[in-house]
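Hi P.,

Sorry for the delay on this. The queue was packed all week, but I finally got your sequence through. Input first:
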Amino acid sequence: MTQPHSPAPHPIHEVPANAPPLDTDTLIALLHSIGAGAASDGQPLPERHQMPGRRIVLADTDCSLADFRVVLEILLAAQRARENGELEQYVGPRVMEALIMAGLGLTAHAIDRVRPEG
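Then the structure:
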């Protein structure tokens, strides 16, 4: 078993016990529900037989795909907020398009990195 490079993920802030419940249709509440428990564990790539340069490329690809997942979670939460939330919770078509473009860019980067060079 490998040792993590970084400590286990933890919440940025704790929610007080006496805090009022969040509206489940707000963008932030939807993001919390989509991403519950989905943080990176900081483990190195388990493929020890790869050349060091290839391991770096695979780690870079892994980061791109993790970022893509975050973009998709935000996009999904924004769509759910548009459909189910109040009007002021919708981020607007420009932000939606920017999220889609970010996803396209991240997948293009990941595809480019996993292809062998040469």
